[in-house]
Specification:
Helices cover about 10% and strands about 30% of the residues. It has about 150 residues and is mostly beta strands. The chain has helices spanning about 75-80, 135-149; strands at about 1-5, 10, 20, 35-40, 45-50, 55-60, 90-95, 105, 110-115, 120, 135.
């Protein structure tokens, strides 16, 4: 199928790249259909709206810069997207890259995707440790220092 994308223009994508968010994403509740694309620069991905070419989120696995990241997700929340085995859950954080200032990731509102059904959900975590703006480079540096001790 072809999808009009912000980053690549009209792009041929495989059906298995389609992700459905039945409740949408916060602020974009009416937009439910997306495709997950590899970004040119790893370890990033694009979550491209299929309905609005200009809407594309940059994603990263939070475990890359926060290996201690923990999501206390209820079985009920997971079952809403058909996850019965946590190993089938893909976890992403939305990245913000402002013109000035650090690149940050939202660890308070992760995206959880069922790798089998490709249904997803955005959660809001109540743990005060996780904020909406974690400085990715600063946390990568802090973790590499911990690893070097």
């Amino acid at each position: 199928m072809k999808v009009d994308t912000r980053e690549y223009g009209l792009k041929e994508v495989d059906e298995c790249q389609k992700i459905i968010f039945p409740s949408g994403l916060f602020g974009y509740e009416k937009l439910k259909d997306y495709v997950l694309l590899d970004a040119e620069r790893q370890p990033f991905y694009y979550l491209q709206s299929m309905d609005m070419a200009g809407l594309c989120f940059i994603l990263i696995s939070p475990f890359i810069f926060r290996p201690d990241y923990e999501l206390n997700i209820s079985d009920e929340e997971l079952s809403e997207i058909g996850i019965t085995d946590e190993k089938k859950a893909l976890i992403f954080s939305i990245v913000t890259i402002p013109p000035e200032g650090p690149m940050t990731a939202n660890l308070q509102g992760p995206l959880v995707i069922n790798s089998e059904t490709r249904y997803g959900k955005q959660l809001i975590l109540s743990d005060p440790q996780w904020k909406t703006k974690h400085d990715i480079m600063q946390e990568l540096a802090a973790n590499s220092l911990k690893d070097g001790e």
